[in-house]
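Lab notebook, bench 4. Continuing the backlog of folding jobs that were queued last week. Each job is logged with the same field layout so the records can be merged later without manual cleanup. Today's entry covers Major facilitator superfamily (MFS) profile domain-containing protein, a 84-residue chain. Filled in by technician R.K.

JOB TYPE: sequence-to-structure
TARGET: Major facilitator superfamily (MFS) profile domain-containing protein
LENGTH: 84
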Amino acid sequence: MSEKPKASFSIVSLLAIVAAIWSFFQGATFGLLLALAAIVLGIIGLLISFSASKRGGIVSLTSIVFGVVGIIAAIIKASLYLFG
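JOB STATUS: finished
OUTPUT FIELD FOLLOWS
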């Protein structure tokens, strides 16, 4: 009887959620870059999570959503800086 190894989170999905959350605490430029990184890493993490030995699909999807919200927040921060 063979045991299946326990599925683990991919490093990419964890990096994606960290970048997405960290983007909210940065300024407009670095926040935008982190949000874009979160989206890219989230897409890669989502693709990796289709493997049976990896987890992190929900984390990657959440980081993509947070990345989009981070882009909106960076645009608002930049417009407040320029026009405020």
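OBSERVATION: The helical segments are 11-23, 28-48, 57-83.
SIGNED: R.K.
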